[in-house]
Design goal:
Blueprint lengths: L2 H23 L13 H21 L9 H23 L9 H25 L8 H8 L1
Helix pairs in contact: 1-2, 1-3, 2-3, 2-4, 3-4
C-alpha cells in the first residue's frame, strides 16, 4: 500500500477521533446526560475503548513495530491513556467541567478493553493478524 493511502486509511481515523473528543470536551458539560450512577465513567470507558482500538489498528501497520504485537498493544494503551490525561488537563480549563482522576482511570481501563477486544476480534475474524488479513487486503486495494 502506498504511504499516503496507509496514512489516510489507518492514521487519519485516529486523528479525527482525537479531534472530535477534543472539540466535544471544549464545550461546557452537557445538561442532557441522564442522572444514572457512573454514566460519565461508562462514556469515558467506551470512548477511550474505541480510541484504543483505533490506535492498535494504526500501529500494527508500522513497518518497524507492526510485527511486535506486545509493543503495538503497549503503545496503543499508552497513547490512549496519555491522550486521556491530556484531555483531563484540558477540561480543567473549561468552564463547568472538572478534571477527575477517576476519569483517567476509566480512560485507561477503556483503552485496555478496547485494545484487547479489537485484537481478539481481529484474530478471530481475520487470520494472519497483524499481516495478510482481509483488512490489509482491502487497504492495499484502496
Amino acid at each position: 500500500m502506498k504511504h499516503e493511502n496507509k496514512f489516510v486509511f489507518f492514521w487519519l481515523p485516529v486523528f479525527l477521533y482525537c479531534t472530535i473528543i477534543f472539540i466535544q470536551s471544549s464545550f461546557p458539560s452537557p445538561e442532557q446526560i441522564p442522572e444514572l450512577p457512573y454514566i460519565d465513567k461508562f462514556l469515558h470507558l467506551t470512548a477511550y475503548g474505541i480510541m484504543g482500538a483505533l490506535f492498535l489498528r494504526a500501529y500494527r501497520t508500522s513497518e518497524s513495530i507492526g510485527r511486535n504485537i506486545k509493543l503495538v498493544i503497549f503503545l496503543s494503551i499508552l497513547s490512549t491513556t496519555v491522550y486521556g490525561v491530556s484531555d483531563e488537563i484540558h477540561q480543567s480549563y473549561v468552564s463547568s467541567r472538572s478534571s477527575e482522576i477517576l476519569d483517567v482511570l476509566a480512560d485507561f481501563i477503556g483503552s485496555v478493553c478496547g485494545t484487547f477486544v479489537y485484537w481478539r476480534l481481529t484474530i478471530k475474524f481475520f487470520s494472519g493478524f497483524p499481516y495478510n488479513s482481509r483488512i490489509d487486503k482491502i487497504a492495499n486495494f484502496l
